[in-house]
Amino acid sequence: MMRFIRNDRELIPVSSMRAEDVKSEFGNIEVHMGDLKDRKFKMKSNVTYEDELLIIDGGKRIAKVHARNFGKVNLEKKAIRIAAMNFEIVEEGEVSTVSGSIKLDLGSDSQAWYQELWG
Question: What is the pTM of this model?
Answer without folding.
Answer: 0.86
